[in-house]
């Protein structure tokens, strides 16, 4: 690849990262702030009249969820990770705590949600995938497998980003209701809840195969390319805490 196309590609990734960061900040502030005032009257979600704790569960879920959404984009900036690995580690731990707290509260919010069984099933699945990918990301970095840690964090943040895509699909669904008045809000909400993470998962899996795994298959012809993904290296996580070994040649981060 020529230098020109490499720098053009870099600009595309920077633009995409900018869009991701701006939409994450917009949703983190726009959707979460009504819940920080502490008045159930401000809830943008219909509250369950039989569950007085509904509002509280959403507050306890949305506040750490919003913080995780804000932290995520900065964790993917390679330059920041290299220049300030300690900041990356501290923010990583804060992100981890936020996702665990937001997940726990989301389980209770889902139980008492008035959104219907199909949407509730989507939220339970999302919580399970959110925690599983987080656990894998944590396990791999503790073993010093930086390249695998990065892949699991991309997967995890794609699920965190469901908070953004959910609101995008909800907006489109509400617009669709004006075209088709028979479309109920429950149908729009359920479809948006499922699409919010299924779409993100498909996009990032494509990205992971094309950017991280495909180059290894080409490079590793005649040897076990897959083992390179799990190779350990200190890199920017560099401390002994994260182990040490050879540099893994998985595709570098775009930003
Ligand atoms: C990725 C895993 C997530 C799951 C499974 C999840 C699940 C839920 C559930 C079940 C509710 C309550 C819905 C109801 O009561 O009917 C909810 C509401 C909410 N969530 Fe999440 N959520 C996730 C991520 C996030 C993130 C990262 C944010 C950060 C902005 C967030 C912000 C909110 C807000 C603000 C509400 C209140 C409803 C609204 O005003 O739109 N969620 N979420």
Please characterize this protein's 3D structure.
It is built from 9 helices and no strands. It is mostly helical and 255 residues long. The chain has one domain: Four Helix Bundle (Hemerythrin (Met), subunit A) (Up-down Bundle). α6 packs antiparallel against α8. The longest helix has 35 residues, at 185-219. Residues 234-255 have low confidence and may be disordered. The structure holds protoporphyrin IX containing FE.
What topology does this entry show?
Blueprint: H1 3-36, H2 54-75, H3 78-83, H4 85-111, H5 117-142, H6 146-160, H7 162-179, H8 185-219, H9 226-229
Helix pairs in contact: 1-2, 2-4, 4-5, 5-6, 5-8, 6-8, 7-8
The structure holds protoporphyrin IX containing FE (HEM).
Keywords: Membrane, Transmembrane, Transmembrane helix
Transmembrane segments: 12-35, 55-78, 90-111, 117-135, 156-176, 188-209
Biased composition (Basic and acidic residues): 221-240
- The counted number of beta strands is 0
Name of the top-level CATH class: Mainly Alpha
How many separate domains?
A: 1
Count the DSSP helices: 9
Q: Which strand-content bin applies to the residues? A: under 5%
Q: Unreliable runs, pLDDT <50, ≥5 residues?
A: 234-255
Helix content: over 70%
CATH topology heading: Four Helix Bundle (Hemerythrin (Met), subunit A)
Region (Disordered): 219-255
Keywords: Membrane, Transmembrane, Transmembrane helix
Biased composition (Basic and acidic residues): 221-240
Pfam families: DUF2306 (PF10067)
Care to give the gist of this entry?
By secondary structure, the protein is an all-alpha fold. It is built from nine helices and no strands. The protein has helices at about 5-35, 55-75, 80-85, 85-110, 115-140, 145-160, 160-180, 185-220, 225-230.
């Amino acid at each position: 690849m020529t230098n020109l196309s490499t720098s053009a590609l870099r600009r595309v990734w920077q633009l995409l990262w900018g869009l991701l960061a701006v939409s994450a900040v917009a949703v983190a502030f726009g959707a979460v702030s009504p819940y920080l005032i502490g008045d159930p009257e401000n809830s943008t979600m219909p509250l369950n009249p039989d569950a007085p704790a509904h509002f509280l569960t959403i507050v306890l879920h949305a506040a750490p969820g919003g913080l995780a959404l804000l932290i995520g984009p900065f964790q993917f900036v390679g330059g920041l990770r290299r220049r300030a690995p300690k900041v990356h580690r501290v923010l990583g731990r804060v992100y981890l705590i936020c996702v665990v707290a937001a997940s726990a509260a989301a389980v209770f919010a889902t139980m008492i949600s008035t959104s219907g069984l199909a949407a509730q099933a989507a939220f339970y699945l999302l919580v399970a995938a959110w925690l599983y990918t987080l656990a894998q990301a944590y396990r791999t970095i503790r073993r010093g497998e930086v390249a695998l840690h990065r892949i699991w964090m991309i997967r995890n943040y794609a699920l965190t980003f469901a908070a953004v895509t959910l609101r995008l699909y909800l907006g489109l669904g509400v617009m669709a209701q004006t075209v088709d008045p028979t479309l109920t809000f429950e149908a729009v909400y359920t479809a948006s809840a499922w699409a919010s993470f299924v779409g993100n998962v498909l996009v990032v899996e494509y990205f992971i195969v094309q950017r991280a795994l495909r180059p290894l298959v080409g490079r590793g012809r005649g040897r076990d390319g897959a083992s390179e993904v799990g190779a350990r290296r200190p890199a920017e996580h560099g401390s002994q805490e994260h182990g040490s070994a050879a540099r893994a040649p998985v595709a570098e981060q775009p930003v």
